[in-house]
Amino acid sequence: MPPVLYRVDNRLVHGQVLEGWVPRLGADAILVVDDDMATDSFKRCIIEGMSYGEALLIKIVETDKALEALRGEFASKKTIVLFHNIEAVKLACDAGLSPKSLNLGNLHPKPESASLTNSVNLSDGEMDILLELAARAIALEARAVPSDVSPDVVAFCKKGREARA
To answer: In the beta sheet, which residues pair with residue 115?
Structure first.
C-alpha cells in the first residue's frame, strides 16, 4: 500500500500530524525520514515512544533506508512519511522514492526566506528543489492541517525564481 501522505515538517511528529492528519487519513503508521534523528538515540526514543501499540507505529529511518522501510515493514500500513526538510525529500527521491504528492506543513523562517503561508517559509534553494520535484510530476501543496486550502506552490516558486533573475 503506498503511503497516504508525504509531508515536510520541521516539527516532525506533533499535534497537527497526530490530531489532524492521522485521523483524517486513517493512518496507522508514521515513518520519520531524518538522518540526524535516526542516529540520536535520545531523540529517537522520544519520537518512537509516541507509538501507540498496533494503533500507531512510529519509526525513524535514515534517508537511504526510507524506500526499504516502505517496501518492508510499512508495506501494508497506511503510512504518513515525514521529512524534516525539503533537501531530504530530494535525496530520497534521487534514491528511488516516488511520491505522487508532497505536503508542506511547517517550515520555519530562515534568513532570506519568503513566506508561502503562515507556517511555510521557503529559501531560494528550497524553491528550486520544489520546482525540480514538480518537474518530476510530484504535486505540491502547502497545508498545515487537512482543512487548510493550499496556495499554488509552483506559481509561488516560479515567481521567486523570476524575482532572482
So the answer is: 121
Give the alpha-carbon dihedral of 69, 67, 129, 112, to 10 degrees: 20
φ, ψ at 33 (rounded to 5°): -110, 100
CA 44 centroid distance within chain: 17
User: What three-state secondary structure class fits 163?
Assistant: helix
Segments forming the whole domain that contains residue 29: 5-164
Residue 154's identity, in one-letter code, is V
Given a cut of 80, whether residue 165 has pLDDT beyond it is no
The C-alpha cell at 129 is: 528543489
C-alpha distance from residue 136 to each of 17, 132, 158 (Å): 26, 7, 15
Prediction pTM value:
0.95
- Quote the mean pLDDT of the chain: 94
pLDDT tens digits along 102-128: 999 999 999 889 999 999 999 999 999
The answer to whether the beta carbons of residues 152 and 140 sit under 8 Å apart is: no
140: domain CATH number? 3.40.35.10
Q: What is the mean pLDDT of residues 83-96?
A: 96
Q: Does pLDDT of 66 surpass 80?
A: yes
Q: What is the dihedral of CA 17, 123, 126, 75, to 10 degrees?
A: -10
